[in-house]
Amino acid sequence: MTWQVTPYIAISLAAVVFLTTIAIYTYRRRAIPGPNKIGALLLIAGAIWILGAAFEIGSFSLAAKIFWDKVKYAGILVVPTGWFIYILQCTGKESWLTRNRVILLSVLPLAFLLLILTNEYHELVWTSITLHRSLPTSEMTKINGPCFWALVLHSYLMVSWGVLLLVRMLVRSRRTYRWQTNALLIAIFTPWLINLLDIVGIEFIAQVDSTAFALTIAAPAIVWGMWRVRLGDFVPMGRGAAIEGMSDAVIVLDAMNHIVELNSAATRLIGREALDVIGQSVDEGWLAGSNLIEVSPDDSEVIREVVLHVGGEPRKYDMRVSPLGGWHGQLASRVVVLRDISERKQAEVALAAERERLVVTLHSIGDGVVALDAEKRVVLANPVAEDQLAILAGAGIGDVLTHLGDNSLETLLDPSNQGKSIYEVTLEGPARRFFDVVAQQMEAGPQIGGWVLVIRDVTAEKETQWRVQLQDRLAAVGQLAAGIAHDFNNILGAIILYTEMLLQTPGMSTKNRDRLATIYQQAERAATLTRQILDYSRRTVMDQTPMDLAPFLKDIEKLLSRTLPEGIRVRLECDDE
After folding, report:
1. pLDDT at 225
2. Do both 322 and 432 map to the same domain?
């Protein structure tokens, strides 16, 4: 086989090696989000196009030129449709690419390839192919058929549609993305413009495929435009989510942790302008965030609290790292949302301190304090209340309270009884106990938020009250007895006086005198009893004099024997001395 060696072939082969290497690297980097596979396919198709064009120029015979021309079109037919699919993925419209639509997009390229491979039998793509030899070179000339123009129309529609989507995104994107997108547009547009001129007969370099040569020269620029901020990053993927007016800081990262987008709150947090950090890795653009942003092994959402120094002051943030799915479920990007929770944390600390003070206060209260929710469930109780609930209702914290003693809770909490401030609850048993209960309703807007019950054990107070009442009754009885004894003592005084006068009467018989003596003795005895009653009730004048306790105690014994019930016996034991 005879070959025509030219500098163009060497340049083309170098471009083929370059594109193939980048394509393999792109395909293997599966961690890279978005259109990595279709991007690798585009690079391989471009390499096949350049390789076929180079070997077609290098071939000398007509059969070899036709063979390599068909190889070249195998790459050419992939590029327009692949470009369109690639742009759809990059601009966030990959949801449109269903399986059926991808198959439909592939039908025409496959049909054109089949027609090209079998052109010798139908001549629909090229009606004639001739070889012009001019030693030491040869050149192939083709007359285009109807299917060729259909192929051209399809190719330009696909390329134009993709360029339109890219330009639309260019208008919407930030200035940071525009120069990268412009570079990619120029690199893509140049080969196709040269191809259009070549089709209409304007030839730039004799015996060279001008489009393939332009693609060879533009290949580094195309690769650079695709990889400047990684595949798919030239589209502001998080633009819709990163609302500028949000108070939360929103940062969009790609799968390689490069900053793709951020809002104004994030720029204030980082302390740098968006233009300075977009396209950089987190380590480069935000040093403080490199140690904070954690990535879940299964690409699930990560939620944690972090501390960042803003303006020299430490502040707490609630950080959420949420993955965003891409093509066929691949990871497309991560959205980092940081919410300043410093004030909330301070409020929580203050609330915890207030709650601690409340707990200490409740524990120091002698009354039982119970908090019920709207379902009458015990949510809070101090130690005193816990003991009282166990006694009155057999309930504890977390239980639904239905009664207190024999009283239904519905009765205690009935709104119609709110005017009644205190309810008395009696616990029957061997030792009766009494409790006062106060119920206060808690409001939660238009609905009842719960109740607070204050329970006081008033058993000791009740017993004290009974003792006081008993003492009052005894004092009243004593006062009544003293009054009667005083009057009775006056009567006895008259009896004793007249008895003494009668005993002085001369000539009285002995029998009558004995009878009067008996009356006198019994009256004296009755007077002694009344004096004792008056002494006990302190109604008589008390003189402090030495006394013999034995006779006094004997008198007290006699008094008690008469006043105490029959079932109680009083016995006095003392020496005669």
Report:
1. 59
2. no
